[in-house]
Specification:
With 389 residues, the chain is mainly β. The protein is 13% helix and 53% strand. Keywords: Cell outer membrane, Membrane, Signal, Transmembrane, Transmembrane beta strand.
Length: 389
């Protein structure tokens, strides 16, 4: 259960409601073949490779660890490829990635002000030549005085919202091998992307009484400020295989490895004010994603699809937090393709995600502890249209 910093005080509030929500993930592609026998290709893509969002009720028990978390990465890519011969092709793309991030949480200002008053009282006694025992007594008296004024853990809440955005450049390299007419083996590498956010903003909201006390005990803190941070999105390596068994059956599979560990270990927000740096310790692990599937051509116009996947989470019980209570997922997917003409194709898909209940045990920046379990799950609906000019 939730508790106040170092006191065992229970923090009141609800369970946060449904922190997940419906999130559209749009994508668009343009492909232009050219050259001798169309052996060269140019493409433009608009994709959203990374993103997550959680949004809890503002008065929930874990509010000091997180309320809103919203990260979106949108890529505009330009690609080119060359078919060396019927067996080998190479390709590369460069993309510009726009990252936006918003983080918000409540602030246990009761604990902050109470703790600052205790530290100041103890320091005054020690500076005057008093003993450690006398300093402890003075700190206790200051704590009682602050509590009478309404400043104790779980009270006098404040709120902070941190926002930032940035543009950065990355690249993708790939090759496709076709040892037979019916088999394709592809490899691709996507670079990591480092976003150095320099124009971030932090907006703090505290009560007038809290602001007055902070001006004496911790001037220049918990005030609106600019800030900077570096957010690195990971590199990944993917191998995929497609094999056409006959005119009706095709099987495919892919495996990818994502280097979260070196990219997303922690993110430190450096405030321009006297506010101490805020370090978010994600401590993500590298992950593996694997899938196998098949498609069956029911007729000249209808194709049926199905597949399963294993999607490893980068989080662990030691470091999983309320912002991204992620867990390893197993996918079950079904799909349908409809080709009413040579120029037009419609595709529809449905995926259900099977998960366990992830547990959390985290401590906020103000020392509040949240322990518990999540009921997570998800469904994915997909629809696309391909049109040949």
């Amino acid at each position: 259960g939730p508790g106040g910093p170092g006191t065992g005080t229970e923090i009141t509030g609800g369970n946060g409601g449904d922190a997940g929500m419906i999130a559209p993930v749009p994508a668009a592609y343009f492909h232009l073949p050219f050259g001798e026998n169309d052996n060269m290709h140019f493409g433009v893509s608009l994709t959203a490779p990374f993103g997550f969002k959680t949004d809890y009720d503002k008065n929930w028990v874990g509010r000091y660890s997180g309320v809103t978390t919203d990260l979106k990465a949108i890529d505009l890519g330009f690609a080119a490829s060359y078919d060396v011969n019927p067996y080998v092709s190479f390709g590369a793309s460069v993309f510009v990635e726009h990252l936006t991030i918003e983080l918000s949480n409540a602030l246990d200002m009761g604990a902050v002000v109470n703790g600052a008053a205790q530290q100041k009282a103890a320091a005054s006694v020690l500076a005057a030549g008093g003993t450690a025992a006398q300093a402890k007594i003075a700190a206790g008296q200051a704590a009682q005085q602050m509590a009478l004024m309404g400043f104790s853990p779980g009270s006098a809440d404040g709120f902070v919202t941190i926002e930032g955005d940035n543009n950065a450049v990355g690249y993708v390299l790939g090759t496709t091998l076709s040892p037979t007419e019916n088999t394709n083996i592809a490899f691709s590498y996507r670079s990591k992307v480092e976003h150095k956010i320099t124009g971030g903003k932090a907006n703090f909201t505290v009560t007038p009484e809290t602001a007055a006390l902070l001006a004496q005990t911790a001037p220049g803190t918990f005030i609106d400020s600019s800030g900077k941070a570096t957010v690195t999105l990971p590199a990944s390596l993917t191998m995929s295989v497609t094999h056409r068994i006959n005119d009706r059956w095709t099987v495919m599979g892919d495996v990818s490895r994502t280097a979260w560990k070196t990219a997303f270990d922690q993110v430190t927000v450096d405030f321009a004010s006297n506010q101490p740096d805020n370090t978010l310790g994600f401590h993500y692990n590298d992950t593996t994603f694997g899938s196998i599937g098949t498609e069956y051509k029911l007729s000249d116009t209808i194709t049926l699809r199905g597949g399963v996947a294993y999607d490893e989470s980068p989080t662990s019980i030691e470091h999983r937090d309320v912002r991204v209570p992620d867990v390893t997922r197993k996918w079950l997917s079904l799909g349908l393709g409809w080709t009413p003409s040579e120029k037009t194709e419609f595709n529809f898909g449905y995926t259900h995600l099977f998960t366990n209940e992830p547990g959390i045990n985290v401590t906020s920046a103000t020392g509040n502890v949240v322990k518990g379990k999540y009921d997570v799950g998800g469904d994915i609906l997909a629809a696309s249209i391909n049109y040949k000019f």
